[in-house]
Amino acid sequence: MSPARAVERLRLEAARERVECSTIPIEAIATMTGFHDPERMRRAFVREFHEPPQAMRRNANTTH
Q: Distance from first CA to last CA of the chain, Å, rounded?
């Protein structure tokens, strides 16, 4: 795994936890976790988790 990919994976895990367990706006989570842009974070979520952060949040809220 390249260093850039490892960093992205760490950012994704931090972002996923915040998306699932908080009500912090997606835009703020993108900034907090180093994506800087919600669209960049959305594309990374779809690539890694096969769903955008908004869908992940909805699904997490229905299972808790």
A: 33
50: left (phi over 0), alpha (psi -120 to 50) or beta: left
Burial category of 31 from C-beta neighbours within 10 Å (exposed 0-12, middle 13-18, buried 19 and up): middle
The HSE-up count of residue 25 (CA atoms within 13 Å, CB side) is 5
- pLDDT at site 14: 98
CATH architecture of the domain with range 3-63? Orthogonal Bundle (1.10)
Lowest mean pLDDT among 17-21, 39-43, 58-62: 58-62
- Say if residues 8 and 44 touch (Cβ distance below 8 Å): yes
Report which secondary-structure segment, H or E, holds 20.
helix 3-21
